[in-house]
Write the structure tokens for this entry.
Amino acid sequence: MGTVESQVVTASDVQQHPGMNTQSQLTDGFHLVIDALKLNGIDTIFGLPGIPITDLTRMAQAAGMRVISFRHEQNAGNAAAIAGFLTMKPGICLTVSAPGFLNGLTALANATTNCFPMILISGSSEREIVDLQQGDYEEMDQLAVAKPLAKAAFRVLHAGDIGVGIARAIRAAVSGRPGGVYLDLPAKLFAQTMDAELGTKSLIKVVDPAPRQIPAQDAVQRALELLKSARRPLILLGKGAAYAQADADIRVLIERTGIPYLPMSMAKGLLPDTHEQSAAATRSYVLPEADVVMLIGARLNWLLSHGKGKTWGGQDPKAWGGQKFIQVDISPQEADSNVRIDAPVVGDIGSCVSTLLAGIGSNWAKPPAEWLSAIAERKNKNIAKMAETLAKNPVPMNFHSALNVVRDIIKANPDAILVNEGANALDFTRSIVDMYQPRKRLDVGTWGVMGIGMGFAVAAAVVSGQPVIAIEGDSAFGFSGMEVETLCRYDLPVCVVIFNNNGVYRGTDVNPTGGPDVAPTVFVKGARYDKLMEAFGGVGVHATTPAELRKAMEAAIRSRKPTLINAVIDEAAGTESGRITSLNPSARKK
Ligand code: FYN
Ligand code: ADP
């Protein structure tokens, strides 16, 4: 328990008395926040210091927490969110008031959308001035702003309530469907003092923050009967399945039933992508052909064409394809969000999968051989075609020849975490680079958001200690690029590879007016992103061939030094919006 002797806690107090764990009488808001987090096993804060939370960052560090400071709050927020995904504990993002809070809020909303547990803690200005709108420094009713974008939002006004506030935030973030929680801590709270013993007693160590949710037996039975009736069954694994850390049981479920499976992007590696039951290489065949589909921690949102339309064999864009769906999900409200779910199984994935396994027993009949061989035939053909493309060595380098290198590096280093964002850089990496272990692929997620790159990379390295490889489109990198300084400051084993094709999607667009401005999608040609890394003492490499790229990536993995490789790609390579071109509204033809 941190305690203070005087009512005013300053940075020098902390520097002179690290830990401040003396015979003192009083504690204050600063220490109660830190003690409450530590009591709940939270040992890392991602944030950006400033009024009114600078001392909180200093004291947290003095109290033995890891405080990772960023250059922009959005990146700190993304770091917290992905730390939550990787650890099943809420990641903490700490920001200053109004603008800092708003910068962090995008990441909080993204976390909520992706079902990642995180807590955004922001300092805020004087309540009595803010509420009368009298024009305070960084005046904003942050709680009201955060509410619609968070799973839950709380404000603490009294030091004695800090324990409850933190406990509620933790429970809200990780229980049920995980999400982003906002915790508003006004400046005055931090300096409030109270009796140290009462302070200690006011803290709550949250018991069983994410309680198991056991599925109902009849729901499991219904699901098993439907699965048994299938002629062409398919299992779809989403990032909820990756999050749940039920890896061994999920693998047994797939292998014991013999059902082909399709991993969503961040579920890749839950089973090795080279697994013989993976149908990833023949996605457009299995979706419309399957008759019963079991979704495990995946939603029928846009990434799955809402479970209907042509992707699923429907006659027109809105038509149901005729599939029956089983949906395993912790949220009771998810079923029927897009099409009818014939067998919802509501519960946590660990409990659901183990209950399903008990019902499956040891002599489950494998799916009909025609279904398996039809998939195998198409899959092998596509893999062979891909191998042919990957073997080419065009000049200049293109996405395929560069990703062939990344594919080998991940194969040789399956522990490494792959962060991936961009349009073409995202789509090609997803289908070319096989993953071998769960939760090793972190990407743009449910929103397809740009800007997660460096925040995810920092957190992945910090929480896992494993090497991180960030494959970035040159446009995507720009959203968080300044954090290369953060990579260097904390000496993190992150290798950033920028696929540089001089622009958004590609670098070949021209200004139709012939005016001096370049086209909106075009960047400075021949930019040397590697120099950015060198500016902060990291390793910068300019690579124009697969051989140079391979050498630089191998060196980065070996040395664990922060490295940025400017991988120059044919500027004509890439298509508008990658695989989701169809989402661009088409202009009326003249
Ligand atoms: C996949 N494929 C393969 C392999 N893996 N072929 C050979 N070998 C291997 N290992 C094939 C697969 O069968 C598909 O071909 C194709 O490669 C692409 O596979 P993918 O990526 O699984 O499928 P698809 O259709 O792109 O998936 C749809 C999607 C996905 C919406 C889920 O595109 C996606 O996650 N998009 C996110 C986009 C995004 O967020 N962008 C950021 C914003 S960009 P076919 O079977 O022939 O179809 C802003 O502009
Ligand atoms: P993807 O984008 O990979 O398809 P989604 O983010 O759409 O995945 O879906 C994840 C789903 O997983 C959400 O509906 C969420 O409620 C669910 N989920 C998350 N964690 C768990 C868990 N521990 N147990 C059960 N379901 C979970």
